[in-house]
Design a protein that fits this description.
Blueprint (H helix, E strand, L loop, with lengths): L7 E3 L5 E3 L8 E8 L2 E8 L2 E6 L2 E7 L3 E7 L3 E7 L4 E6 L5 E6 L2 E7 L5 E6 L7 E7 L1
Antiparallel strand pairs: 1-2, 2-7, 3-4, 4-5, 5-6, 6-9, 7-8, 8-13, 9-12, 10-11, 10-13
Length: 137
């Protein structure tokens, strides 16, 4: 899975792809329109962050490349790649339980904190994207 050279793009299936962990300096793109919403992405080798309509959506430390990011009321799915293992934070429904699946394997059920944030870790193998699914339990 290649990095997203344009920082963020709409895919034909209605999903979003964003992030470039190969950049040495922080790059950002604001006011990206997708399905009636406005997105902002900040990305480089240390962090990748996505906002939707001014609200937090996704953050990874260190930076990652995300493909086919799809968010509904009940789940978030995406493929993610990076150079080293990453901590990913998602903004979800406050005080809810979510089942986490990473590369088809059940990683357990987690609860969001008072602010609706859920933090998970993803391990990477060089050049291989990892599929992540976070579904409301």
């Amino acid at each position: 899975m290649p990095v997203i050279n344009e920082l963020i793009r709409s895919e034909q299936d209605g999903t979003l792809s964003f992030g470039n962990y190969e950049l040495d300096t922080k790059s950002k793109l604001s006011d990206f329109e997708h399905c009636g919403d406005t997105y902002k992405v900040k990305t480089f080798n240390e962090i990748t962050k996505l906002e939707k309509n001014g609200s937090f959506v996704y953050e990874s430390v260190p930076g990652t490349a995300v493909e086919h990011f799809k968010e509904t009321d009940t789940e978030v799915t995406f493929k993610v790649e990076g150079v080293e293992d990453a901590q990913i934070t998602l903004e979800l429904e406050e005080g809810s339980r979510y089942e986490i699946t990473i590369d088809g394997e059940n990683a357990g059920i987690m609860e969001t904190n008072m602010g609706g944030k859920l933090v998970l870790s993803v391990e990477f193998e060089a050049g291989k994207a990892v599929e992540v699914r976070v579904a409301k339990a």
